[in-house]
Amino acid sequence: MATFSTNQFKGGLKILLDGDPFTILENEFVKPGKGQAFNRVKVRNLKTGRTIERTFKSGDTVEAADVMELDLQFLYSDGEFWHFMEPNSFEQHQAPDAVVGEAGQWLRPQDECKVILWNNEPLSIEAPNFVSLAVSQTDPGVRGDTSSGGSKPATLETGAVIRVPLFIEEGEVLKVDTRKGEYVSRA
Amino acid sequence: MPGTASGARHPDSVVTEPTWQPSATPETLRRRARLLADIRAFFARRDVLEADVPALSAAAAQEPQLDSLACGDAGWLHTSPEFGLKRLLAAGIGPVYQLSHVFRAGETGRWHNPEFSMLEWYRPGWGYPAVLAETEALLVELGAPPLARVGFDEVFTRLTGLDWRRAGADELQQRAAGAGLAPESEPAGLDDARRFEFWLDALVGLVLGPDLGRSAPCAVCDWPPSLAGLTRIRPGAMPVAERFEIYWQGVELANGGTELTDAATLRERFDRDAATRRALGKPCLPVDRALPAAMDAGLPDCAGVALGVDRLLALLLGFDSLAPALPFAADRS
C-alpha cells in the first residue's frame, strides 16, 4: 500500500483516514523552536463532502487513497446505472444514481464531466460549471405577469427544471450555471 | 503509486517554468534592508559588538527536535550561532550579537523556511528580566507594540485547563486529543518523563502558541525545567527554567533566558538529549565538545536572546506567512 509522509503533504493530495478517502485542502506546519513538529491539516471527505481538521506528528505516514480525477464522457443511463467512458482508452465506468446525484440532471449523452474514481469505482460526478441545454417545455410568457418576479419554470432537454425569463420560448438553447442551477443567458 | 496515476492525467502535473521572481516585492526588500540596518544601529548605540561566527560547524545540533543540515564531509550548518557566541563570551569578548542566516532541516511551512535570518545576542552580567526589557526596547524601536508579560503556569492553565505540575502524561494526552492530535502520535518506546515532555510540548505548540500575542507581542516567562534548552534552572520548591518566549499573533518570535554556565550540567543535558534522540530513532551525530570546554574555562554569567528576523518583518508588515518577507523563499531558492 502506498503511503505519504507528512513532509509530502500538500493541497490536493488524496489520503485514507478511518477507511475513507480524503483530499487535503490546507496543510500547516506547526513547530515551536524547541519542540516537536506537527502538521495540522484541513481535509475534505470525498464521500460525504464534510471537512474536518486533523493533526499529525511530522514524519508520520498515512495511507494514500487510490483516487483519480478523470474527464469522462457520459454515454447513457439505463435507469439503474449511469455509464461513462474514457475518451482515449474507451474504458467504461458505471455509477449508481446515489453517486451521480444532482450532476445527472445536467448531463446529455456525449457530454464530458469530471469523475472522481476511488479504487477504480466512481465516487462522485461533477457536471461542467456551465452547460448549454435546449428548452423542451415552457409555457408562453404572459405579458404583465409580475407575480413571479418576471420568471417562469422551464423544463430542459435533460429533464432539469429551472427558472427562466418570460421571453424564453421552447426550443431555445440556454446557458446554465450548474453550481447554482440558474439561467445565465441565451446560448 | 496513486499519486502518480492521478498526477499523470491531472493539470497539477503540468510542468511549470521555474519562478525566477523574488518572493518579496521591491518595497518589502527595501523595508527589509532598513530593518537590518536599524537592528545594527540599535546594538551599535548600546556598544554591543557584532560577531560573525561560522555557519559551518564540525558538530551537529543536539536538541532532540532540531535537525542540522549536513554538508557532506565539511560538517553541519548551524541551527543558531549560540555555541560560537558563547565561546566568544568565554574568551572575554563582552556584549556580543550576530545577525545571520541559520539552517534547520525539515522545517518548511507557512511560518518556517529551512534557511532563515536570526538575531542572537548575549549580555554578560545580565539576568533575563534585563534582556527581556532590552528585547522590548528593540521591538518597540522597530515598530512593534509594547510587550505583554505572562507566567507560563498561568497561561498554560488558562488555555488548557490543566496544572502542568500535577498533570500526568495521560491527562496531557487527553487534552491534546481535544486539540485534534491522536494518542497514537506518541513515539513508541518513551519512558514516563519523556512521554510527559512529548505531550507538554504538543500542548505548547498546538494550544498555547497559536493563541498568544493576538494584539501585542506577549512574553511567556518561567518555563517548565524540561523545556529549559540551555538556560539556567532556578532551584526551589517549584523549580523553573529562567526563560521566556515571545509570541506575536500566534507566531513564536523570540526566546531568551539566563544562560546555563555550569559545564557539568551542560554535559548532563547533552547526554540526556542524545538518549532522547536514540529513543526517537534519530541518528546520533558528533556532539560539540568546544562549548563544554569553554564552560570549563569559564563562561561569564550572562543572558541571551534569539529572535527570528524574517518573522518580525512579516508580522510588522501584516503578512500572514513568511514567504513575502523573504527575498527568495525555499520554493524559489
UniProtKB/TrEMBL annotation, chain A:
GO molecular function, a single term: translation elongation factor activity
UniProt modification remark: May be beta-lysylated on the epsilon-amino group of Lys-34 by the combined action of EpmA and EpmB, and then hydroxylated on the C5 position of the same residue by EpmC (if this protein is present). Lysylation is critical for the stimulatory effect of EF-P on peptide-bond formation. The lysylation moiety may extend toward the peptidyltransferase center and stabilize the terminal 3-CCA end of the tRNA. Hydroxylation of the C5 position on Lys-34 may allow additional potential stabilizing hydrogen-bond interactions with the P-tRNA.
Stored SUPFAM superfamilies: Nucleic acid-binding proteins, Translation proteins SH3-like domain
InterPro entries xref list: Elong-fact-P_C, NA-bd_OB-fold, Rib_uL2_dom2, Transl_elong_fac_P/YeiP, Transl_elong_KOW-like, Transl_elong_P/YeiP_cen, Transl_elong_P/YeiP_CS, Transl_elongation_fac_P
Compartmental location: Cytoplasm
Translation elongation factor P/YeiP central domain location: 69-123
Pathway(s) per entry: Protein biosynthesis; polypeptide chain elongation
Gene3D superfamilies named among the record's database cross-references: 2.30.30.30, Nucleic acid-binding proteins
Lineage: superkingdom: Bacteria
Stored Pfam families: EFP (PF01132), EFP_N (PF08207), Elong-fact-P_C (PF09285)
Keywords, comma-separated and alphabetical: Cytoplasm, Elongation factor, Hydroxylation, Protein biosynthesis
N6-(3,6-diaminohexanoyl)-5-hydroxylysine: modified positions: 34
Record HAMAP family: EF_P
Family according to the record: Belongs to the elongation factor P family.
Protein name from the UniProt record: Elongation factor P
Primary gene name: efp
